[in-house]
């Protein structure tokens, strides 16, 4: 007998423009055997009704409390702005629902720690949307590195453009300019990429960092209003991996006319490059190049077609769908393949170490969950 799809309630859906509309709805609908979108809750009943009608979703909940209380909802998907994650995820966990929360999990390490603890204590599956980890290119790259394509990793260098925190911003994204909101270049594009880097290369165990302001304002595209920018638009990190290999990172605000993503992994037997149109590895098409042995220059590495077959064509819904597929498998089979709140906590720890080092001017350990400080 066919199993019944899991009912999903989405918090924060604006048809045609929100991340939920662009990525989550098509991702979930690409997995009809696993999921059914049963309802939506927004900031008002009228907004929820409009979103449900426009997206052909059966039910518009009056508020989040009604959504999490519904027996039709087994999974609560939280796709709102970062400052609201804590209260909404907590409500879902308190109701005993499984959760898919967009990254960053919380507005800072303390919120992330509390949510991870709550989910663990309640025994729910709590998944975080660090979907770059599920990108076909990252998954294939992980296998190449583990299989010895470059031999022993000697070093890694990452340069990326954050796209956000450039000279212009739209009204919806203007909240990223205020560092207090926890949604900026360090936490979003670099945070997603750090989650993928952990899969490929292992943990960063110590680092020194600088967070720098070069732009102090941005212009809102729709109104031409000049708004102060307190979020940093230059992030520089010099770290050491658990293997002992050094890693260097530079993310810069806006987009470059040249390189917008170049991640190199250099080893005793070969080299690999990852490139893309921006540093948002979670939502762009990535490309791989490599060379090993006697080869003198890198050449394209083709990811096997099987990594793409059966998934949405566009990277954003494809990568999100691949996380949802892992989540469904974990609920069905008891596996542990989807990125959890504990995984999110590890990335928040790296970000906290970057902020600590930048503030103190010191090289600091990354105090990863479950690892004592002496293990660095």
Notes on the structure:
By secondary structure, this protein is of the alpha/beta class. It folds into two domains: 150 residues, 3-Layer(aba) Sandwich (Rossmann fold), CATH 3.40.50; 188 residues, Dihydrodipicolinate Reductase, domain 2, CATH 3.30.360. It contains nine helices and 18 strands. The strands form three sheets. It has a nine-stranded mixed beta sheet. The chain has a six-stranded parallel beta sheet with strand order 3-2-1-4-5-6, sandwiched between helices. The longest helix is centred in the C-terminal third of the chain and has 20 residues. The radius of gyration is 20 Å and the shape is globular. 47% of the residues are buried. The C terminus is likely disordered. Keywords: Oxidoreductase.
Class derived from helix and strand content: alpha/beta
Oligomer: single chain
Question: Could you describe the largest sheet, including whether it forms a barrel?
Answer: 9 strands, mixed
Low-confidence stretches: 372-376
Give me the Rg, rounded: 20 Å
What's the name of the CATH homologous superfamily of the largest domain? Dihydrodipicolinate Reductase, domain 2
- Count helical runs: 9
Helix fraction? 25-40%
- Beta content: 25-35%
* pLDDT averaged over residues: 96
Strand order of the largest sheet: 17-16-15-14-7-13-12-9-18
What is the name of the CATH topology of the largest domain?
Dihydrodipicolinate Reductase, domain 2
What is the class of the largest domain in the CATH system? Alpha Beta
CATH architecture of the largest domain: 2-Layer Sandwich
Pfam family, one: GFO_IDH_MocA
Domain Gal80p-like C-terminal: 136-276
Domain Gfo/Idh/MocA-like oxidoreductase N-terminal: 7-129
InterPro entries: Gal80p-like_C, Gfo/Idh/MocA-like_OxRdtase_N, Gfo/Idh/MocA_oxidrdct_glycsds, NAD(P)-bd_dom_sf
């Amino acid at each position: 007998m066919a199993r019944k799809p899991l009912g999903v309630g989405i918090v924060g859906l604006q048809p045609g423009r929100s991340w939920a509309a662009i990525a989550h709805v098509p991702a979930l609908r690409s997995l009809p055997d696993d999921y059914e979108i049963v309802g939506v809750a927004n900031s008002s009943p009228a907004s929820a009704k409009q979103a449900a009608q426009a997206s052909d979703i059966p039910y518009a909940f009056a508020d989040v409390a009604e959504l999490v209380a519904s027996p039709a909802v087994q999974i609560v998907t939280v796709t709102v702005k970062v400052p609201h994650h804590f209260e909404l995820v907590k409500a879902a966990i308190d109701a005993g629902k499984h959760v898919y929360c967009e990254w960053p999990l919380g507005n800072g390490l303390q919120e992330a720690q509390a949510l991870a603890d709550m989910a663990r204590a309640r025994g729910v599956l709590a998944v975080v949307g660090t979907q770059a980890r599920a990108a076909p290119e990252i998954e294939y790259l992980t296998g190449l590195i583990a299989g010895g394509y470059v031999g022993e990793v000697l070093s890694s260098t990452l340069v990326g453009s954050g796209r956000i925190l450039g000279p212009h911003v739209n009204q919806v994204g203007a909240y990223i300019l205020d560092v207090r909101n926890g949604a900026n270049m360090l936490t979003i594009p670099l945070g997603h990429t750090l989650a993928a880097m952990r899969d490929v290369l292992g943990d960063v165990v110590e680092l020194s960092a600088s967070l720098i302001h070069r732009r102090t304002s941005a212009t809102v595209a729709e109104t031409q209003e000049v708004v102060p920018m307190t979020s940093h638009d230059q992030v520089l990190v010099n770290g050491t991996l658990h293997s002992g290999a050094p890693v260097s990172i530079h993310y810069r605000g806006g987009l470059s006319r040249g390189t917008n993503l170049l991640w190199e992994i250099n080893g005793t037997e070969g080299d690999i490059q990852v490139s893309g149109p921006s540093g948002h590895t979670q939502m762009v098409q990535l490309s791989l190049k490599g060379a090993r042995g006697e080869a003198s220059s890198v050449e394209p590495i083709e990811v096997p077609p099987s990594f793409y077959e059966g998934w949405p064509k566009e990277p954003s819904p494809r990568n999100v769908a691949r996380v949802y597929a892992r989540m469904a498998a974990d609920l069905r089979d008891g596996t542990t393949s989807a990125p959890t709140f504990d995984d999110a906590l590890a990335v928040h720890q790296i970000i906290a170490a970057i902020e600590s080092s930048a503030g103190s001017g010191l090289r600091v350990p990354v105090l990863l969950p479950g690892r004592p400080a002496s293990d660095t």
